[in-house]
Amino acid sequence: MIDSPAIRTQDLAKRYGEIQALAGISMTIPRGAVFGFLGPNGAGKTTAVKLLLGLARPTSGSAEVLGHPIGERASRRRVGYLPELFRYQGWLTAREVLALHCELAGIDRSAWTREIGDALAVVGLTDRAATRVNGFSKGMQQRLGLGVALLGDPELVLLDEPTSALDPVGRHDVREIIRALKERGMTVFLNSHLLTEVEQVCDRVTIVDHGKVVADGTLEELLRGDTVRIRALDLPRDTASALERFGTTTQDGEWLIVRGIDTERVPELVAEIVRLGGRVYAVEPRHESLEDRFLRLLGGA
User: Which of 148, 140, 146, 218 is nearest to 181 (CA)?
Assistant: First the structure.
C-alpha cells in the first residue's frame, strides 16, 4: 500500500435529495505533498472532506485513502483531522486535552508521554503544556488543535480552514508548522479559502466549483504564463482574435488583456499590435497570482 497515493478519487459524487453536493470529482494526491483544496462557499469542499473521512457515504464513484477504500477503519487509522470549528474544555490543560484524545484514538498508554511531548514540540506549546485552554489565545488554541491532529503519527493530515480566524502572526506560525509536517514526510490536505496562504505552502492544488473540478495540477502548472495589459488606440475590431496565439486575449475599452503569455513574447506582441495599426501607449506586465487564476476560472464571481 505504501506505493499508492495518499488520496485517489474517481468520479466521487454525493447527492442530498435534490441537491447535488458533489458532481463526480477525480483527483490524485501523491504522498508527501502539501495539497490545497479550493473553491467558493457551496462548491462541495466540506462534502468531499466528509466522504474522505468516512463521515458520509458517496452516492456514486469511489475513493481510496492511504491505499484503503474510504469508510474502512484502516483508511482512518493513519489520518489526522483538524475541523474548522472545534472547542476543547476550557478547564483542561493542553496536556490533558492531548491525553484525552490519545485515549479516544486508542493509542497505547505507554506511548502517551512520547506522543504528547512530540505533538507539543511540533506546534510550539511545550512551555504551555500545563496552561488551561481557557487561558489560550485563538492562535494557541489552533496550535493545540493541530497537536491533536498529529497524535498517533499520522501519514495524512486533513486541515479544514486552519488559518481562517488567525491574525497574520498566527497564520505565519501555522504555515511554519505545515512546512515542518512536510519535512517529516506527512501528506497535508489543506482545505482553505485564503488563496495567498495556499500559494505559499502548497505543492499541488485542486479547484472545485459547483461540485466539479475546474482546475488541477501543481502551482507551476496552474500559474504558467503571465498577464500583460496594453493600452492601445486605433485597434481593428478583430484584434483580440488576431492575438490569440499569444494567450487568452480580451479587450476592455482601450485596454487589451493577454493572459498566459510568456514574458519573452511581450515585445513580439507589441510589434504585432503596431502591425495591425494600433498605437501603443502603455504596457503593464505582471505575474498572475493564484487569486487571479481562481477568479478567472470562476468567471470573476
Answer: 146
- Cα gap 130→281, rounded to integer Å: 65
Domains of the chain: residue spans and CATH: 7-221 (3.40.50.300), 225-297 (3.30.70)
Cα–Cα distance, 81 to 53 (Å, whole number): 9
Amino acid identity for residue 185 in this structure: G
Segment 85-140, tens digit of pLDDT? 788 888 999 999 999 999 998 899 999 999 999 999 988 899 999 999 998 888 88
Cα-based distances in Å from 53 to 59, 84, 98: 15, 14, 21
Report the run of H or E that residue 261 belongs to, with start and end. strand 255-261
Q: In the 8-state DSSP scheme, what is residue 110? A: G
User: Does the reported pTM lie above 0.90?
Assistant: no
Q: Which of 281, 216, 293 is nearest to 33 (CA)?
A: 216
The whole-angstrom distance between residue 167's C-alpha and the CA centroid of its chain comes to 19
Using CB atoms within 10 A of its CB, is residue 255 exposed (0-12), middle (13-18) or buried (19+)?
Answer: middle
Indicate the residue type of 277: G
The angle that helices 138-149 and 94-104 make with each other, rounded to 10 degrees, is 30
Separation of alpha carbons 295 and 301, rounded Å:
6
Q: pLDDT band at residue 219, thresholds of 50, 70 and 90?
A: confident
pLDDT at 292 over 80: no
Cβ–Cβ under 8 Å, residues 228 and 245: no
Tens digits of residue pLDDT in 226-245 = 788 889 888 887 788 888 88
**Using CA atoms, how far apart are residues 151 and 199, in angstroms rounded to an integer?**
27
Span between the terminal Cα atoms of the chain, in Å = 41
